[in-house]
Amino acid sequence: MKKIFFLLIAISAIALSCSKEKAKEIDTPNKGEIILEADESFKSVTEALAERYTALNPETRIKVVIKKEDLGLLDLLDKKARVVVMSRELSDEEKKAFDTKIDLPWQPAKFAADAVLFVVPKDSPLESISMDEINNELMSDKKRLIFDGTNSSNLNFIAQKFNKKPSDLQFSIINGNENVVEQLKNYPDKIGVISFNTISRPFGDEAQKLRAQLKVLKITKAGKSYDASLDNLRNMSYPFTRVLYFLTNESYYGLGNGFIRFSCQQLGQIIVEKEGLQPYNIFKREVQMR
Known about the structure:
The protein is of the alpha/beta class. It has helices at 2-25, 43-56, 69-77, 92-102, 131-139, 153-161, 177-183, 205-211, 230-234, 255-264, 266-274, and strands spanning 32-38, 60-66, 83-86, 109-121, 128-130, 145-147, 172-173, 191-195, 214-216, 218-221, 224-226, 241-248, 278-279. The protein has 2 domains: 28-112 and 243-279, Periplasmic binding protein-like II (D-Maltodextrin-Binding Protein, domain 2); 114-241, D-Maltodextrin-Binding Protein, domain 2 (3-Layer(aba) Sandwich). The strands form 2 sheets. Strands 1, 2, 3, 4, 6, 7, 8, 9, 12 and 13 form a 10-stranded mixed beta sheet that branches. Keywords: Signal.
């Protein structure tokens, strides 16, 4: 009987130890460490949100990993990353994989309106490009459109917009949005395709430097031209407006969900606005004083 008694005590002690160890591993919104993955196109706004959150919660660490959008989604499904930033609609197969692997309802947390821009060197005579012209260029052997890489958010979004597979499109590649801008002057007959967030930060030194090198083409659709202004992003009239959103595999209210909640509420949305993007959840309000 004594042996059985001591055996039960030993088992209880081991179970308690494991329980404590497991508790240590579970993070909270204000303590812990997670990996957040985002496409290079959204690097600026993602890092700004993560830096502000960790500054307010000094016992947290959000490691921002820059990775192509499709690869980031795979890492989320394989639980190598806690949170990812997405810009395109998931396919039915991807949503099914999310439901199966993550065992959570697919629920995007929308936080900003970004856009895909078509840009040329500053001295280019081009001022605009139509939807039909873009569609034709995507099918042309001339490969005049320069994207920042395969599996990138920009390429995926444009392919989805024209109901095509990325593998069916014709295009050139220069890796990285910033590299596309900086090298575009060497290819005066080509058109770069970059994210708005790459150049949107109003007072960022790098963003200002990049803006000085290029001209953003207006997009012509049904006889009307649209630029990528915040007003046109807000009402979604710019044809290549896209909504950025977070996905997480976190099933409890931990650091991942705490960060997402912060990003979608007022303080996080102010940071999005300072990045030069359109906040998804707050809008400017005009108050008249009498």
